[in-house]
Amino acid sequence: MKGLRLLGRLVPLLRAVGLGGAADRLAARAVRASGAVDLSRYAASEALLLLPRCLQRSGCDADLLSNPENCKRCGQCSVGGILALRSGGLKVAVVGGGEAAVAAVSGSGARIVVAVACERELVEGALRCRGAAVLGIPNERPEGPCRNTTVDLARVAAAVSMLRES
Ligand code: SF4
Question: What pTM, to 2 d.p., does this model score?
Answer without folding.
Answer: 0.91
